[in-house]
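Final report, Chapter 2: Outcomes

The project's central promise was a pipeline that accepts a single protein chain and returns its three-dimensional structure in a standardized token representation, suitable for archiving and comparison. That pipeline is now operational. To close this chapter, we reproduce one record exactly as it appears in the project archive, with the input sequence first and the structure output second.
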Amino acid sequence: MNSPQESQTGVSHDIVETARSLRKLYFLRAAFSITWVILVLVLAKTNAGIASILFIIYPAWDALAIYLDMKANPQTAPKTPQLVNAAISIMTTVAVALALQQGVPQALIVFGAWAILTGLIQLILGLRRRKKMGGQWPMVISGGQSMLAGGSFIATAHAPNAGINTLAGYAAFGAFYFILTAISLSKTIKA
């Protein structure tokens, strides 16, 4: 007989609650990314000030989302990957703001380095969570893709048309993967 803390499939109540919290967070992250992409495509091309703000907001939002991710996980879950990721995102926010004073190519290089580092952490975290609650394969793929995109941002930072629009596809794919992960967590929630 299952304990009151376990469903009939053996998934603990804590894992189900964590999956619910993460699903909400992933939908929120997707909504942010979609909104950010729309703002970039509509406003950033014609307004350098808005483009700069959007450049800075993206890693700052990531740091806040990581904090929300840590709150969604049980107290006993190791927080080291998220703490490192949050610190990197906070440092990146400051570094992007400083790099923008030098020019967009420098900001793209900082953003690229950030995408590589956070993509690696996301990949590792997705692999760890996959074992406990499943539904993480989109985050694993997204982490790998983030690493590749980061390398691309660095390689093309000085290209003639490089700018914040270069990042719109990255954010759009991020939204797509957050939605997929949120949907795939439904299996754990229903278990």
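Archive annotation: The chain has one domain: 13-186.
This record, like all others produced under the grant, will remain available to the consortium after the project formally closes.
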